[in-house]
Queue: 3 jobs
Job 1
Amino acid sequence: MAVSSAGSRARAQLTSAEGDVHADRRRRRRRGGDTAAGYLFLAPQLLGLVVFMVGPLLFALVLAFYHWDGFGTRSFAGLSNFAEIMSSPRIQCSAVNTVWFTVLQVPGLMLTGLFFALLMQRAGKLTPVYRLAFFAPVITSSVAVAAIWLWLFNPDISPVSNALHGIGLPAPNWLQDARFIIPAFAIVGIWQGLGYQLVMFMAGLQSIDRSYLEAALLDGCSEWQKLRHVTIPLLSPTILFLSITSIIGSFQVFDYIYVFFGDGAPDSARTIVYEVVQIAFGDFNFGEASALAFLLFLALLAVTGCQLAVQKRWVHYTE
Amino acid sequence: MSTFSDTISRAVTTAKGASGSGRPARHKLLLHAVLLVCAIGMALPFAWMLFSSFKPLGEIFMQPPKLFPQDWNQQGYRTALGGADFVRGFWNSTYIALTVTAVSLLTSAMAAYAFARIDFWGRRWLFMVFLATMMVPGQLTIIPLYIIMGWLGWVDTHAAIIVPPALFNAFGVFLLRQYVKGIPVELEEAAQLDGAGRVRRFVTIILPLLRTPLTALGIFTFLAQWNNFFYPLIFLNSSDKFTLPLLVNQFMGQYTSDWPTLMAATTLLAAPMLIVFAFAQRQIVEGIALSGSKS
């Protein structure tokens, strides 16, 4: 992100420095007109920003401190919504489930994505064929994905269970056994998200200047050394970007659970966003749901903030 | 836009040349074997979906399960198409996704142009606000948004899921601004000397030059909207307004163990995008990679 914007900024500065003084004076005189023009072009998105983003955000912040079902009277709740959340064993369980899902899914996604990107880089003419298979789940509706896996996780009819039995392994009853529900979600998530990671890693690999790899080759580096000391450091901006977006995405997992279980998910399957939706649109407790969504937002900010804070130690930018 | 394949083929030729002897031939074979097996593994769930949708119910419970139906049967599709209005769902999904995509591309490009090229009061901090909102999870704003839609009388209407994403797309504004900044100012200045106003310059110079990022962003937006589940789920109640994912989700509640019908419904949901993808693979993959890597 920094690389491209710095490049275009430098270019923009260059051109404005070249521009003559007259143009500069003209620009300054027309500033009033420019402000009008600026807001004219910005108007639709600015309206959207205010009505559909900033307004609701402030509203959510206020709601978090109120008791309200959306219709009756609002009453000030102080911190009681937050206290309610903190003392609820079910929500604690959902928070643990969400973190557990993230811990399983993010490394699973990124390691398989990188692995297959490295392989596909050498696949030559057949690359589009493989890519078709890996990327197809990405563009498929998560409802369809969940429906397919609902079948594949059903121990009575699933070919997966059958195959596991075939090689002498016990096949878990994925969606009924509390220990396997979250790993099952992670399997679905990895199947669906892998293609995106793969494509992003391939784009990252493509942008690596080949002279680095040639230099490593001349120095007699092994494939592994090249990967460890050249490719991975040069891919670090991609790795940072994907780790941030995948963690944010994992924390917000909802669709699969809702398609699998509807409104009646067992405790071991619930995640934070599922709780938010149930509390808001099942119990019509808008205050508590807003408070919980707000806590999720803070957690995301904290995690992303940590990632950005430690990035200097391991992320290399080439420009 | 053939850079993708170019670079890959270049990488392959140098890999061949560099490693010298005949050793890589075996490696290559192993590489393709691994990729082929894994690609088939990735595609298998789709194959099960498709072939099971043509099985009679009895064959579903056969042990061991077989991929291909022994008795090809369209009963699943007949039940599915009779049980819900798929054509309507498909139309709803498609026109909603198209409208959002078209309007949001235009409004995002306009805002991007303003941020990149027009020197107006408050530009810097407004842009910071746009950037900051990208961190806000949709689940935080959905509750007040639901209340606001109630006030506007938009609950259970398509306006509730069209207008917000059409009028607000911080990511799109950010992405396009990068590209507008890359367009030489001189092009616009020349047109300005010829007497072209802002709007004319935007339409005749900037928009055509943004074709690549607009296509990428358009693909990204269309797919995200067509497949969106969360927002329609919250805002729509009547099934004649449902988008295709919602319709299939509702269907799953009604036909819990009629697997051929469920798989037929799922196939009808997955097929349109898979068909589009098969024909426009390169554009879609590059579009999504471009949208991702620029942020």
Job 2
Amino acid sequence: MKIASLSAEQAPPISLPLRFFTMAPVFLALAALLLALAGGNPFAELRSPAQIAATHHITLGFMAMIMMGAIQQLLPVVIGSPMPAPRLVAWLTFLPLIAGALSLSAGFMLGRTELLNLSWPLLGLAFLVFIVASLTSLARASAKNATKTALLLAILSLAGAVTFGMLLAAGYANGLPLPFAKLATAHISLALGGWVLLLAIGVSYQVVPMFQLTPNYPKWMTAALAPAIFATLLLNLALLLPEAAPRWAGFIAEALFWSLACCFAVVTLRLQTQRRRHIPDAPLNFFRVSMFSLLLAAAFSLAALAFPMAVNHLRTLSALAFLLGFALSLIQGMLYKIVPFLVWFHLFRGGLKTGVPNMKNIIPEPWIWRHLWLHSSTLLAALLAPWWNAAAWLVMLGLLLQGALLGYGVITGIAVYRRTFRKIEQTQP
Amino acid sequence: MTTIAEFMTANHKTCDNEFADAETAALTDDWADAETAFNAFNDDMAHHFRMEEEVLFPALASAGGPSGPVQVMLMEHTQIRELLGQMAAAVKQKDAQEYSGLSETLLMVMQQHNHKEENILYPIMDQILAREREALLGRFQAV
């Protein structure tokens, strides 16, 4: 039994996660600028170089940046086991992730192979350090719960997604004869369907009942859902192996995956209607937008299976609903809880009892509501963007403003921390 | 037979429900209800802490159990008491905004605290204090 996991000092210093959270909004804004620079309507063609560059700014620079920063913070809470060597792990993920994401997108935008060849080892290093550190933390955790299983499967998916991603970048840069379309499918399904979805599921098992005061997720679900999703992902990957798998098999494997994803969204939304806490809460609404978007992403993907003539548009819509709707809503909603709590927690631990601002005085609530409306409008525009060029511009503007708003929120939190900390130092010489 | 973990976890849930009732009342400016609900919540939290600090923690210590985790829990009890004190003042001043910020903060602290107790500390207690469990549960009413 691990008793050390109740140690008081298991929380890493506040500067570690905040560094990740401050950098992420910059990448969101940069993604918007890349899309604007691309010319034309980048949402009409998802695999154009500009779109690939912008997408990786969002998935690596924004999503992975926040997810990796947050996981270092969340592991002690949800599985009772901190990351080893937190400072070293933070630096060795943070710096190569920034450099890798920038060189990858620049490589695609400018068509420069040397930049691509710089990017994949950097990104490989960032993720390798993160994966080894989080697997160590999982191995040391005494808790045996569904969250731990889901996190483990998420991290294994990440390892696969990164491997395929590195192969794709190296292959593209060096003209290697690789099956690019299949590798890209494997990369995307493990990154989004595995890493992002399984991580969201594992964290939700804990966070939804704990902080939204809902009933627990049903036992059948926590026991089976994450392993079932992982199994359908493996099935989807296995179908890529033969030269041409039967169409019906691919159809069933993909339909199974999306049905399981819907199961998570529906159960979460149902639990949230049964919550004991009946107060207006912007982060909770981010969470619900996220779940509705996941349902929408599933609906578009299932429709793509049913209506092959509209497959390109439907798949684009599914990808937009998944990334901008499901993932971005969830991540931003969580961040608006994590940042104020971290600031409060570290100030309170700093010894000041009175004069520590409460969580709602750290990032002003009206700004979080404004961000929610801006985010929802961006999402609506994104669903029109493949057809309507003006909507594509609205999405870019929306992402730019969201990056600015979130950055403002995080920096406001840091400013409150610094101001109050100085006060503590003055009162306790 | 009820384990320590089951009994104390159920007690956490009761407190959670009272927390939510008080918060809803305060945020709708229903201060008569808010005061009643907050007092019920505050009293049950105080009783919960006494069950731990006067019965369970000393029993664990005399059975040679680990002292580190108990120290952390005691420190978090202090944080929670501090927030409860500030919330009581907000109820007195009928300050919904202040109450809402404090209850948001308390929820985050309290839930992480409960989670650690339910998943780590109570199971340790059930293991180390298996023989005296019934006697310990019997003493809860008296504190």
Job 3
Amino acid sequence: MITKSLHARHNELAETNNQLKILNGGIFEAGELPYFKDKIALTGHFPLTPKKLEIFQVNVGYMCNQVCEHCHVDAGPDRKEIMTRETMQYCLEVIRNTGAHTLDLTGGAPEMNPDFRWFVEEAAKAGIQDFIVRSNLTIMRANKKYHDLPRFFKKHNIHIVSSMPHYTRGKTDKQRGSGVFDASIKALQELNAVGYGLPESDLRLDLVYNPSGAFLPGDQVAMEKDFKKALQEDFNIKFHHLFAITNLPIARFLDYLIASENYEDYMYALVEAYNPTAVENVMCTNTISVSWDGWLYDCDFNQMLDLKVASRIKHIKDYNEDILNDRNIIISQHCYGCTAGAGSSCQGTVA
Amino acid sequence: MTKSYYDPADLRKFGNITEWSEELGTKFFDYYGKVFEEGALSAREKSLIALAVAHVVKCPYCIDAYTKDGLQKGITKEEMMEAVHAGAAIESGATLVHGVQMMNKYNKLSM
């Protein structure tokens, strides 16, 4: 079980250039597998360009109370990158004027940002249609000061999207750390208790499943059925939908793939499962991702690889949606993760 | 030529069998795909059956493929191992039930 981020361990993959070297070299450089660019060109999808902006995703910091083995953010308690109130002010200005219908707050554990509640309160006033907070669940049990989060979320009608890798303790704890399963179950029960996730409730509670290893997620609908049955029978927990998300080969998951000698097989599996229909709806075509320090990216994964948008507008303080939408999306071989099988996005499958 | 009869990378080339017999290969893969769709049995149940049979026919490719398939479908390791035991029990049962034939023959030949 790992306890520190790649950064704190001074792992060479903490340097994003080294990750990109791996993703651009090896089996791709040798021609064994096609570059993503060439693959999407075959179906007329290159260059990939944005459609209408729908989701404004803000990463408020990389600090987290967990150190999950697969984390693409390389988040953890030792990460100190936290969005300041000043950058949040720039974000609020955009939120008030954006054409996007969804505001999506992520991290790290977004709740650990000291200005998180202030930011939520201010952003809620903007009256955005769907206001998502991506919560790891355990944060609600991590410290007394977080115990009232379910009521806080309810007050602002926040849509909760929570990670839950499996409905069994063993698989969950192996991926996310010892004790995570029990704390997550307790947090879900508390969310249910205030009305989240109940069949007729407007308080949306969705779960995110991502595989605990070097394999792709199964059918989202079938998995949702299994999760619902098990969580209901064992813990009387209810939720709305399950989003199945593919692990992208970056950061700690890339480190795991290489260390376990699964990297090549995993890349083969992603490329073999390439689905042109998924390319049509990849999330980078309707999302803008903002980093803790205000830089703009095509998605959260490009953010973690420090691949900033290919636009003259690169920072939130200069935000201009029209100029920004007129750009080509930056791609590399990690993008195969979003186009495999039924596709993958922060909202689950796309094909 | 590889010096080993089994190479894990060969599993990826399974589809190539169609190149030397297109009609039969295509028919086989169509059939194969259809078999594992959701039906009266769920795709999950069929994956576990496939895993058990993979062990009984001792196909390393199939074992790799259906262990991975099981993981993708959220099947637990306990379920997988029970499926392997179900296969093993039938296989050993098939051996042992022949003991009756041995007993019959023994009795027939003995005074």
